[in-house]
Amino acid sequence: MATSQHDHLTRIPAPEGVAPGTGYNHVVWGTGRFVAVSGQCAFDEKGEVVGEGDAAAQARQVFENVGRCLDAAGATFDDVVKLTYFVTDVAHLPAVRAARDEVFAPDRLPASSAVQVSALFRPELLMEIEAFAIVPEPAGTGARPEAETETGFRTGSTAGFGTGFKTGFAG
User: Fold this and answer.
1) pLDDT tens by residue, 105-150
2) Could you give the 3-state DSSP secondary structure of residue 80?
3) Which segments of 5-159 does DSSP mark as H helices, in order?
4) pLDDT at 92 over 50
C-alpha cells in the first residue's frame, strides 16, 4: 500500500484489497483545524450564473469559488481532504476533472465522491461542489486540554464529538 505524506496530511491512493481510483485517493487524513466549505455553484461575485449550459466554464467558476472560500479560512487546495461533486449529468465529470486538475497537484488529490442528481436549486446550474479541508495548526499552538463545565462537556478549541462527556461510570 503506497502512501503519500505532505506536511499535515497523509494520502492512501489504494488500500490493500481496494482497486486504485483514477483522479482521487481513497483515504486522506491529517491533523489540524477542520474546515468545511459549503457546496459552491457557478456564481460570480454578483450572484449571476457563469457559463450557462457550459460545464467547463461552470466547473472553473465553482473551483474559483471553492478556492476563495478556502482562502477565507486560511486554507489552500493542498489542505483539501474531501470533495463531493453533485452533477446534473455524469457527462459533466470530465469538465469537473479538468478544472480540478488546474488547482490540485497530482500527488495531492483528495478523497472524492460524485453523485448525479436530478436537479439543483436553479435549473441553469450543472454542478455543485463541496470541500472539506484540514489546515495545519501554527507552530506552538497544538491542542491543549480545556476546562470542563459542570455538565462534563469541554469548552474551547478541543470541544467537539467524543470529548469531555462524563458517563458517571467508574473506570
Assistant:
1) 999 999 999 999 999 999 999 999 999 999 998 766 555 444 444 4
2) strand
3) 55-72, 93-103
4) yes
Q: What is the pLDDT of residues 51-81, one digit of tens each?
A: 999 999 999 999 999 999 999 999 999 999 9
Q: Which of 89, 79, 86, 103 is nearest to 23 (CA)?
A: 103
Say if residues 23 and 98 touch (Cβ distance below 8 Å): no
Nearest to 42 by CA among 66, 78, 18: 66
Phi, psi (5° rounding) for residue 91? Answer: -65, -15
Phi, psi dihedrals of residue 57, rounded to the nearest 5°: -65, -40
Strand order in the sheet with 33-40: 33-40, 127-135, 80-87, 111-116
Determine the pLDDT at residue 137: 84
3-state secondary structure (DSSP) of residue 48: coil
**DSSP helix/strand/coil, 56:** helix
Local structure of 96: helix, strand or coil: helix
Q: Distance of alpha carbon 171 from its chain centroid, rounded? A: 37
| Amino acid symbol at 160 | G
Mean pLDDT, the chain, integer: 85
**100 phi and psi, to 5 degrees?**
-60, -45
Reading phi first (left if > 0) and then psi (alpha if -120 to 50, else beta), residue 140 is in: left
Helices (H), 9-128: 55-72, 93-103
